[in-house]
Amino acid sequence: xxLQAQTISARFANALLASAxxxxxxxxxxxxxxxxxxxxxxxxxxxxxxxSFAQLYRQIAVRMDDETVGMFSRPLRNxxxxxxxMIMLDAxxxxxxxxxxxxxxxxxxxxxxxxITRTTEGLVRIALLEKKDLGATRVLALEFMLMLMQGVTSWxxxxxxxxxxxxxxxxxxxxxxxxxxLYPGPVYFNEPVTALYMDPAYLxxxxxxDQTSLGLFIRNAPMDWFYFSxxxxxxxxxxxxxxxxxxxxxLTVTEVAHALHTSPRTLARRLSAxxxxxxxxxxxxxxxxxxxxxxxxxLPVALIGSKLGFEDPAAFNRAFRQWTxxxxxxYRKRQ
Length: 335
Hints:
It is a single chain. By secondary structure, this protein is of the alpha+beta class. It has two domains: 3-225, no CATH class; 234-333, Homeodomain-like (Arc Repressor Mutant, subunit A, Orthogonal Bundle). The protein is built from 15 helices and seven strands. The chain has helices at residues 10-20, 29-33, 38-41, 50-64, 80-86, 94-108, 138-157, 211-220, 234-243, 253-259, 264-273, 278-296, 301-307, 313-324, 328-333, and strands at residues 7-9, 47-49, 112-118, 124-130, 165-167, 187-188, 194-198. A five-stranded mixed beta sheet has the order 3-4-7-5-6. A hairpin with a 5-residue loop joins strand 3 and strand 4 (124-130). Helix 1 packs parallel to helix 4 and helix 9 packs across helix 12. The protein is globular and about 60 Å long.
């Protein structure tokens, strides 16, 4: 399954809208224009695809002429991120590019600043320092800026950087489980500073992008800021890939393990090391595919449930309601 079809809590879309709503130019019609249902966004447990979230971000950024969608006291005018990336393209290595990023950002944002230092353990710390009160959208702003920094950093060297740790100054939020798609490393809360920590060896990596690839990176924003890599949870993604076209088959754990050339015990141990189980992985895959099929096809609800391996519509309805807070038929009608 592609990153675009992966789902994320509607909390992120709602936080984005709350930030945009602070400005006089905000128009609620932008939600529907981005292909989202205002009613669904308000349902407890509702989810959107990564693609839908990205479309909403782009819609708001263009309409507001602000690439940080109202998060800060000064707007980041459309095109700013493109020019920020352009001045980094001719840097000889990542360390120089990051210094340019830090210096450029200082010129266009009064509320937060980046600081690049070394820790006592020798790690590179890219800290996001709060210079002003960020208000009600503080959590989103900090999440957003670290996603931007990690996305740009990995894109510049054409490698997904596995950050050693990611720290946030705020307490662990209710949506923290979503961070597995957002940040490439272990996340800690109630930290002294919001920051990314990485191996200093990456600073010597050459810049591998040019203006042609820059155009695609900007058009895709913020899709390429998310961290989604098969190498991060290889066994989980191997299992998802195997199951996605076989959910309508009553396969047991033993049958799947043998098909993947391993034993049930080894498969369970590998999934546990990646923070999941066979059933959790299967359920998340079913959830994501159900949302995608309800959004993008006119297949009957009962048929969707059957394709996902549910024995009857009632079982599918119960599971979908547990995932999203809404029955699948009601979910589709609110689109």
